[in-house]
Structure prediction request, 396 residues.
Amino acid sequence: MIPPDDLRARILGAAEGAPSPDRAATVRRDRALAALGVGVLVAVFAVLGGVHVGRRPQAFLLLTSGGWAVVAGLATWSSLGRGRSMLGRPRAWLSAAAIATAPVLVAWALVAIAAWPEVRELRGGASAHVACFVLTLLLAAGPCVAWAWARRGTDPVHPRAALAALGAAAGAWASVSIDLHCELSHEAHVAVGHVLPVAILTLLGAAFGNRVLGLRT
Amino acid sequence: MERYAAGDNAAFGVVYDGVAPRLYGYLVRQTRSRERAEDLVQQTMLQIHRHRGRFLPGAEVIPWAFAIARRLMIDGLRRGKREVLAEGDDPVGVDAPAGGDASDDVVQAHETAARIRREIAKLPEGQRVAFELIKQEGLSLAEAAAVLGTTVTAVKLRAHRAYEALRASLGDVMGKEPS
Prediction:
């Protein structure tokens, strides 16, 4: 079915009157935003004092943080990568990444704690749980906002799943950072202080996905 | 699209010529209003223009355009705009026979088309959309899956179920399912 001739002229005229960034400009902007997000995370981490092994065995720290970094990397690849499609990965894929990230982090921590049961003595009180919970959210804020900003208003298919996966990925990197810094390794502290923020960010992503990443008219 | 994404503004006309006719046909069939279809084509093409810098080398434009158009259409419906007219109405004459003295064959074809439309409209949303994108709009399974944000397997299953349901209700006018 052929659209009317005047429609073509109208659309081309409207496009000419509102220039848009080409690929080079968009890539530059996205890279700057990504660097800004990671930069904020690293800066907050440095202000906190950076890596602190404390009373934990180094091998335990390597196992937990290394495993979590792999999980965070996979979550980032799943949420930010678009494969070869302009529409990104399927909803089921993004949802799986969003839903699985926090449970996998907890499961990995439990495996490590089972291998070094003595670290269960490093338990903190409620105030320590809350402090780490807030710090993890703070660490995640930079990448989460920067990545979401780079993608805002561009997803016509599954913005809720996409932002949920993105929130999980940003949260996972924050979890890696807080794990490198905080020596408290009791499973309750790890679950509440280090991983619960990942679940919170995932839920926030699902709640605000339409508003943030959804197509704007 | 590749040239346009790289900064060649003049290539937008080529993109329009490649995308707009298919998009317009789809939108007229969906909204049953030429005016609304034109509006949606314009909005869709301007979204493509706005986000051209995000175009991935080697990606397909058609699924992207259909997904944007479908989203805009759904958003329009949610805002309370009535885009789908009552079942069987055909104010734009998409399937109407031309002229007043149509032959019996043409009248019958028109009635059959209306009957098929009614049966398609009765299908569950997911099955109906998958069927329309693949069988009516000619998208590949992979393209339809991308438009719907799902997997090829899921969209294949939906289209197959839709076809089975239509064959059950329209057995006398439907042939064998194409592979």
User: Anything to note?
Assistant: Chain A touches chain B at residues 1-4, 7-8, 10-12, 14-16, 18-27, 82, 84-87, 90-92, 154, 156-158, 161, 214-215, 217 (CB under 8 Å). Chain A is about 75% helix and 0% strand.
